[in-house]
């Protein structure tokens, strides 16, 4: 029995199939099968029931899972505490919300490369819900995403918050008072896709106004800002990212009551115990994030 066999066993259980584990571990399915067969021979028990089309974990396999997870966690703890940190190596799959990609992601990547040159990154830029799902399924190791709360089993560390404000193009005529929810019933609204925290916030405003309109959707904040600037509609955007456009008059901030709450962002991992690779990325993310505590 060795750690590679235990890791293979744990990944099969977590991901639900030999094929998924082979893909994650960058191995052939025959190699994965061989590792499990060797582990079963060593222990003298069947870990998976192969009588059906999909291999399912046996009672002894479920019993082994806890021991295997603790053994792998101890292996990682030894490596983290004893090995020099600059020697960390491996692939980290990072899910990134677009707003992070637009702001401090380059600083994160360059700092990580400088301190840990052997760590490789695989970046996945997407909306919040898909990134969260990929994290839960094990397709991502870590995610930099917005949201006030996360699923059970996810560990989150705050990296700051971002203030969003309603914005419009230069020709938009606003009333001589702050906009309230009822005003939005007659205004065309632009939003990120339904799988985003942005959409949830916009929808809450529309619901409060009594409007039944469906926002026009776009999966890119950059494009959303362009559409807003050309007068297609109004949208929630972060002023700190569009200071140049605001100064030039291409975008205008609309006063509203109440002012939308700042959106918290976090670096999120699956499980209570994190690996040294995850910790390295998370620590640097917290260090280089340009998001303020109060959203400024």
TrEMBL record:
GO terms for molecular function: DNA-binding transcription factor activity; transcription cis-regulatory region binding. Keywords: DNA-binding, Transcription, Transcription regulation. Residues 1-58 form the HTH lysR-type domain. Pfam families: HTH_1 (PF00126), LysR_substrate (PF03466). It comes from the Bacteria. Belongs to the LysR transcriptional regulatory family. This is LysR family transcriptional regulator. It comes from Hansschlegelia zhihuaiae. The lineage of its organism: Bacteria, Pseudomonadati, Pseudomonadota, Alphaproteobacteria, Hyphomicrobiales.
């Amino acid at each position: 029995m060795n750690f590679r066999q235990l890791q293979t066993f744990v990944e099969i259980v977590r991901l639900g199939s030999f094929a998924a584990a082979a893909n994650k571990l960058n191995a052939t399915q025959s190699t994965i099968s061989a590792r499990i067969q060797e582990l079963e021979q060593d222990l003298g028990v069947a870990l998976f029931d192969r009588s059906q089309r999909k291999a399912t974990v046996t009672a002894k396999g479920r019993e082994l899972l806890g021991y295997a997870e603790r053994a792998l966690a101890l292996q990682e703890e030894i490596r983290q505490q004893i090995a020099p940190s600059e020697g960390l190596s491996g692939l980290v799959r990072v899910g990134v919300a677009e707003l992070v990609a637009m702001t401090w992601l380059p600083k994160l990547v360059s700092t990580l490369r400088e301190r840990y040159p052997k760590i490789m990154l695989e970046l996945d830029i997407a909306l919040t819900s898909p990134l969260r799902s990929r994290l839960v399924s094990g397709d991502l190791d870590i995610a930099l995403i917005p949201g006030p709360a996360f699923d059970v089993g996810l560990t989150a560390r705050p990296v700051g918050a971002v203030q969003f404000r309603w914005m419009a193009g230069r020709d938009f005529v606003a009333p001589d008072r702050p906009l309230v929810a009822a005003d939005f019933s007659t205004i065309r609204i632009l939003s990120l896709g339904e799988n985003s925290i942005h959409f949830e916030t916009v929808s809450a405003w529309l619901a409060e106004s009594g409007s039944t309109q469906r926002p026009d959707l776009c999966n890119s904040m950059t494009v959303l800002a362009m559409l807003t600037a050309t007068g297609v509609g109004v949208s929630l955007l972060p002023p700190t990212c569009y200071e140049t456009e605001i100064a030039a008059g291409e975008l205008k901030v609309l006063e509203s009551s109440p002012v939308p709450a700042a959106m918290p962002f976090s670096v999120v991992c699956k499980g209570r115990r994190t690996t040294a690779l995850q910790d390295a990325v998370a620590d640097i993310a917290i260090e280089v994030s340009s998001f303020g505590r109060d959203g400024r």
